[in-house]
Amino acid sequence: GNKRQSSSLIDLTSDSTWDQQKPHLFPKSRLRPKSASSPWIPSITIPQPFEMTLREARKKSQLMKSYVFLELDKQRDKRQSQDEAECQKQFRAQPVPAHVFLPLYQEIMEQNEIRRQIATQKRKELLLSTQRPFSFLEKEEKKKEAIRQKFLAAATPNESSKQKQATKKVPKSTYDPLLGDKLKEAELYREIRIQMRAKDLLESSVAPIDTSNRRREPQSRTATKTKQERLGFLQDKSFSFKPRINPTIPDFEGLYWAFQREAVRRQEIKEATRNKPFKLRTSNLRGRQRQANEKVKFHFFQDSHQLSKVSVQKSHSLTRLSSLSSNTLPVHITDATRKRESAIRYSQDNKKEGDKEGIYWLEKQKKKCQAIRKSVNSRAKALDPHKSLEETHKEKFKQNWQNMRERTKEYRKELEEMQLRVKNRPYLFEQVTKHDARQGAERRYRHTLQQVGLSEEFVRKKGKDATDLLDEESDVHRAPKPQGEKDNCTVQEGEPQEEQSGKEMAT
């Protein structure tokens, strides 16, 4: 079919192929007839670019290329010159300074060692000067020795000491009513002496390290004032709280030895049990001696036969029987003991049979319960419309797996499309050159229209009217198809040539 022929901006950007395409775009039948009888057909003035504009565009592109190449050459020459200058430089190591060879570290270590020795010697002298011998150690040892002697004397009392204790009387002074007051007064004097001695020791005490020679850090007046206010309560001796203190120190050593004496005194001596032989009179009976001897022999042979089969660990009874002498007679077994043993054996057999029956019944019930459980589960599955968790889990797993496969396929397809799009897309510099060529062609087209005195709307309108007239003529005369197809081919072939010409102009 025929396509509408319009004079767009792209159709007017060709340079050298303009004259070649003109007869194809407008056939001879469209030209104005020379005879006056033929009807008048309006013609379109097609602007052509001037040679000077084409020449200027070529010069500009060449100048741009030459300027870029010159800049690149300058930068390359500059870089090469810098590299050569850097390579020609000569480096020389500076000499090692003289102070490096001085043994400063050894001198510092020696000075530190001397200072440390002097400080340790001073501390030793200070400690020796403040050292005082302890007087209470000998007293404590004497007290312990006296308590030990008392305990030994109390543990092994003699008759003389008992007589002395019996003859010793209580002194009459103990019955005096003023004795309690005297004891309280003595205790009060003792507390006063302890407090006075503690104060004297506190005042005469000396610190182990003398801090008078050291410099104290200077403190501000406000700091000292606040410190005195905070620690002022220590100077005030009238405290409201007075704790109850037990001034008497218990004698733990004496208490311990007193407790030991009391424990020895209260100790109960238990008599040990003595083993006595059994005296059984049943073997002395005359009527049952022969019967008992026969039974003992029978049991003896039976036990020996059984013990030969058993391991050596269980053969103690045989050795005991062999150790018996021929004079001693075994114990007589009565009817009551025999009946008791038979009753016990019978009850044990019944118990074993009952246990076996119980175990058999439990196994039978267990099998029955398992069969009932299986039948109930099968019937519940048959009647229950809902699916089991295992089946639903498998279905969901399969469905999720299929969805995941579809998603991966879609993702790969999108990736391929993106890669194809990126691959087929022209480069950025090609897009820029194409855009610049199109803008230049549009600019030249407007400039030529302004020079001729036409507007774009007028040209577009005239081109549309011409295409409409051509369509009407083709409909009336019904022109053959091959000619139209040929025209279309020429129009379509013209577009890439125009694009090529635009690209050449841009480059």
Automatic annotation (TrEMBL):
In this chain, composition skew of type Basic and acidic residues spans 475-488
- Look up keyword Transit peptide and say if it applies: no
**Keyword line:** Coiled coil
Identify the stretch(es) annotated as Disordered.
1-42, 205-229, 464-507
**Which cellular components does GO assign to this protein?**
cilium; cytoskeleton
Q: Does the keyword section mention tRNA processing?
A: no
One Pfam family in the UniProt entry: FAM161A_B
Q: Name one GO biological process term.
A: cilium organization
Compositionally biased spans, kind Low complexity:
1-17
Q: Which InterPro entries match?
A: FAM161, FAM161A/B
Sequence similarity: Belongs to the FAM161 family.
How is this protein named in the record?
A: F161B protein
